[in-house]
Each structure stands twice: as structure tokens, then as C-alpha cells.
Design a protein that fits this description.
Blueprint (H helix, E strand, L loop, with lengths): L1 H20 L4 H18 L3 H24 L10 E6 L4 E3 L2 E7 L5 E7 L3 H10 L4 E10 L12 H6 L6 E7 L5 E2 L4 H19 L2 H12 L7 H9 L10 H17 L4 H18 L4 H18 L6 H15 L7 H15 L1 H4 L5 H24 L1 E2 L2 H30 L1 H25 L7 E2 L5 H17 L4 H19 L8 E5 L8 E4 L6 E4 L21 H12 L7 E4 L4 H4 L2 H7 L4 E5 L3 H5 L2 H8 L3 E5 L4 E4 L2 E7 L13 E6 L2 E5 L5 H10 L7 E3 L11 H7 L3 E4 L12 H9 L3 E4 H4 L2 E6 L2 E6 L3
Parallel strand pairs: 4-6, 12-13, 13-14, 14-15, 19-20, 20-21, 21-22
Antiparallel strand pairs: 1-3, 1-5, 2-3, 3-4, 5-6, 5-7, 8-9, 10-11, 10-23, 11-12, 16-17, 17-18, 18-19, 23-24
Length: 770
Amino acid sequence: MARHLILLAVSATFGVTATAHSLLNVRLLIIILIFLCFLYFSVGLSLKALSFHLVIMGIFLGAASFSDHRNKTAYHGTESQFIITFTDQPNIDGNSLKGFVGSEKGERLVLRYKITTELEQEKLSQFLRIGLSCPAEGTLQIPEKNRNENSFDYQRYLFRQGIHWIFKADSISLQECKEGGNSILVSIRNLRLKGIAYIREHFPEESSGFVTALIFGDQKYIDEEDLTNYQRLGLVHLLAISGLHVSFLTGMLFYIGIRAGITRERMMMAILLFLPVYMLLSGASPSVVRSCSMAMLFFLLLLFKKRISAGAAIGSTYMALLFFRPNMLYDIGFQLSFAVTFSIIMSSSIFLQYPKKSMQLFILSFICQLAALPILLFHFFEVSLLGVFLNVLYVPLYSIILLPFSLISLLIHLLLPSFGQPLISLLNFTFVICNKAADAASELPLASIPFGKPPFLMMLLLVISLIGLCLTWEVSFEKIKIWCGMIIVLLLLQYNLQRFSPFVEVQIIDVGQGDSILIILPFNRGNYLIDTGGQITFPIEKWAIKRKKFNTADDIIIPLLKSKGIHQLDKLILTHPDADHMGSAKELIDNFKVAEIIIGGWSEEQYRDMDLVTVARQKKVKMTVLKRGDQWVAGGARFAVLSPFEQEENKNDSSIVLFTELGGVSWLFTGDMGEEGERELLRTFPQLQADILKVGHHGSKTSSSAPFLEQLQPKAALISVGKDNRYGHPHGDVIGNLEGNGIKVFRTDEDGSIIYKYYKSSGTFRKTLP
């Protein structure tokens, strides 16, 4: 039964995905055909059974289509007055209030509100709670799509949750707020808020975020650096509520109840009532819903003296959740939770055959990493080989010590604070040691290996190989070697995919109001980044500082590089020392391998005291100063430095100006060079022409003069500029000059990242935004 339910779950998955990708999608049809052939030839299903699988696909296709049909908005986008109800935990982070709210029309909105004073922040922290309804004024905004290649699509993510708008509130009338009713659901959610607030108040900062994550499933209070380390090492699953937590809690409750003299039947009923409450208390994430649902199914059947195998339980739970909430399929937590749990259930006989517990843990960790491998590569483009070994240490540490210790410490401190405080101190010390060890491990070579985002064929072959390995693990050692060999070959091929790529690629990365340009030469002969973008920062009061600070390198550039399978930047070219061009260089050098940093001549003093130089020296990164006349050749392309040529008072006119021929066309990268620099360039190089111009200074009025454009005669102009920027870039006169000269204009504020890809004799521009 378990086997058939799991196979039906696969068919259900195809039904749901057919809604998003259309039944006429060639890739999806190929996969479905392969699956049906597998069922017929390998599993031996009859035509009647195959027909039933097709019926299941149709049923789940209908469920997903119905869900999409209901996913409509009642707003037009012009509304300004609302009654908002806080349906989820309000998140006050520095000077911003974020969260999900319900509107008077029953529609969920994303709330964004800027807090103006520390007093207002304190008032909101004390006043806001789930179930509170308040009048508010503001504007509705459409959520952003992904503005860079392979980046997170926030608009699609919200749409799959039935959310169509971001409500940017200008004011919230707290004095007119009303309680929306004291339902059981609201009471449980507010109890969760009180629990989180209690932990944050009484536990030390180093451990409060981890205790909150383990007990209430909320990771946002964990230190950003610690969370990044756990993610890189493949340990972040330990901080999510999962079957491990549910098993521990239900087992503890069942044992206590039995010891107290309560009958088994009553304890089962009590646990069945407890699990939905715990689901809400712990945040109802996909992993929580999955583990609680499986546990409820198990105890419900046990109550009626029925038994169900773990395989049948996970298959039934998966199909039930998918039927009622089809879009849950696209949640990464949902994917990882079911993939890993399925692998544990199906391979239990494999790791249990090893007598030593340490070996069992290692095999289990290895199997879980294999199960998660395709999902991690698709979404995060990297995996941790070191994580296989670290999980052997950290899984028992968290399951046997830290999780029970956290619960016991909290309960004792609630009942007897004076007795609970020493326990909290000891718990904090343990977390500090664990986090320091994770920090040290994250610096090791195998901590995180970027493979790039696999293409469709690679993903398909990898999944088939992993399934083949699972099916033959206990059957044939020879077949195991074949499947393992295939997986290793596929991973090696994916890791080195860029080495086989014949394409030239130039990408203007959308970093907001700043510059960052990625150049990829064919066959991995050079990966260059011109500028890193960055934000101009202003002094801010301590209360207004956010827990997580946006950084262009960490949040945009490094994920993009990893998605492209780039393991090293051969040259990081900093055109000039302005924050919007090199403000994220330090983070980039600190978290990604850079072979050489290039700066312009006569600007050394301006860089000397910057943190990026200190980090570069620590990592022994080569630093080179270039000026007019310098050049280099790589991948069949010559890069010539046209500027700077002398000391300039204006930093913009001292920008590094590069000329090269890539992909059969000539390029001129101008940094922030203004009109004076343009005139000097024309005098020195009177024959200078370029097919593609990277417009200087984000299209400001002080650059891209008419004489400059007339001599260059570019066919296309690229403008890196922030959406709705405060400077009014690009200037209307510049756009008029460009269009007046018949030049095709691409701009990141309207087009997102701009990608030019060239192969053999042809190249094309592609915009990320439609």
C-alpha cells in the first residue's frame, strides 16, 4: 500500500505542476512520459492502474486550477483607506513595521510602515497583537518581480500565498483600533507572541534567537552571521520545527501521562487535541504542518487500533496537503521536509543494518543530503560536503541536549525564575560554543561548494540517478556502483559546466542606484566584475537599526555568481571610490574568492584606509593600479584602459574607462565619467567609436554629451540606475540625446538586469523584466 500511495503522490505532483506550466509544456510531458514508462515496465502496473494514475493527475490538476481561479484580488490599486487586521505576528525591525494583515475585504496584504520615533516603536511593540483591527491610510503597490537572473521572485512567492498587494501605510490610527474577537485561533497565536517576547526578555542575546527557533519556529531573531553559517553548512534544518521536535514532545507527553496513571486511549486523544495547538504555536510552517499531520494520522488510527506504515502515512499526508493547498508544492520548506522525510523512511532498513550508532548517523546524514541535493542546487546553487559529517555531530547535539534543555529551561524559569536562571546561563554557554564551532567550520574549503543552477536536463538526470540509487541500494552492489558513478559524473559536469561554455556574456546587474557589471569570457577564461554597487549610508539612531542589513554583495551579486557556477572572480575592477560603485566590495572579497583587485591610478590614497583593503591584505588578494595605456588580453579579447591619465579633483572624471571587443561588438565602460572627461577622451582618441556604451554616471545631465554620442555612434546604450531614485536619473535630456541619435536604450530601473549573450556569429540582448 505504501508503495502505491507514494507513486500516486508523484502523479498528484504532476497534476499540480501541469497547472503552472500547462499540459502542453514539452519538458513536463517528457517527465510524465518517463514516469508512466517506469510504472509500466519497471513497476509492472497494468493499463488499468496507469489509467488510475492519469485520473489522479486530472483530479489534482482540477484542484490546482480551482485554487488559481479563486486567487483573485478585489482591489484596483487606487484605494487609499483600509481597515487592517493583524493576522500574523507583527515584525518590528528597527524603524520599520512589517507583516501580513487582512483587509476589510477579506484579502491578505503585506504591510510596510516606517516608524518615525523611538517612542512610536515602543508603543507599537506594546500595543500591537494578533486580532487587532485598525484604520490605516496609504497606497497599494504591486510586489516586485525578480530584477536579476536566477534571483528570488517575490511577486510569484506572494501570489502563491494569495497575496497581490503590498500596502505601504502612511499612517495607522492606533487610538481607533478595535479587538477583532477573542477566538481560540487568535488566542493561541497571541500566546505564541507572548512566549517569544518572554524568551527575548529573559534569555541572553546569543541564545534567545535559537531557543525561539527551536520552541516557536521563529528564526528571525537569530544573529545574521550565525544563521548564514548554519545555512552554508547544511545545518539550518536543525533550527526548523520538524518531526524530531514533534516526536520528542508527543513522546514526552505520552510518557508523563502514562506515568501519571492516565489510560493510553485518553493520552492519545489528548495528543490529538494538543498537536493542532502546537502547530499554531510553532508557526505552522510546511515542516510543522507535515510532521504534525503525520503524527495526528498515526495516533488517530492507533486510537481505532489500526496501524499504518510510515511510507503510507507520508504519502497520504502529502496528497491531502497538496489537494487542499496546491501552491504549497512550491514552498522550499515543503519540498525539503517531504524529500528528506521520505528518504529517511524508505532507507530505514539501510542504515539500521549498521550496528554502530555513529555509522548509522553518518549513513542517515548522507542519505538526507542526497535527497535534498536537487532542491538545494535548484534554489540555492550550492551544497555543503562538510555538512554530511557535521550533521553526525550536530543532530544528536540538538535532539538530545539543546532541544530538551531549551524546553526545560523555559518551563523552569516560568515557574521558578531563580532556579531557571542558572540553567539559562548554561544553555547560553552551550549555544555559544556550538556557534563558534559552526563559524570556524564555515571557513573550511568544503563548507560550501557552488555548483550553479542546473539546466533542465541535468536536473532530470540527477533525480533519475538518485531514485535509481535508492531503489537498488539493497538489491545489487554492482548497480549501486553504477548509480553512484553517474551521480558523481553529473556533479563534476555541473561543477565544471562553465569550463565547457562557449558563450560570451555581459550582464548589467540591477543593484539599484549604483553600478555592477559582470563579464564572463568563454570556456572559463575570465570572470570580471566592474564595480559592486553599494548604498550611501547616513547616521542613524540605535533604535532604528535593523537586525538584517541589506548588502548588494551578499543579497544580489554573490547569489548571482553562484547561480552561474562561477567559483572565482579573476578581476574585480573598481572604477572609482564612490559608495554606489564600491560600497559592497569589502563583503564581496570577504565572502567570495577574488584573484585580483584593480583600481585607477592616482586614487590609491582614497582606498588606503578602507576596510576592503584590510580584508584584501588578510586574504592575500593581489591589488593592481591601472592607468591610460595599460591593457591585458584574455579569452581572445583585448581590454584597454583609456582613463584615468592624471590626478583629477572630481572623482567621477577619474573613473577607470575600459574599451574592449566582446561577442563581435565593441564596448565602452565609462564608470561615472562626466562631460569634461568625455571631451578629454575625444581629444585624445579622435577615432574612438563603440557599438555599446555603458552610459556614465547613471544617465545624469553631466554626462553623455551630444558631441560624445555623435563621435561614438553607439547602437545601444546601457544605463544602470535605481528605480524611483531620489536623483531623477536618468535625466530627460540624456534620454532625448540617446533616442535622437537612434540609439537603443536599456535601463535597469525599467528592464531589470540586462544580459548580452554571444555565440559564434550572433549575440542578443535580453531583459530580466518583461
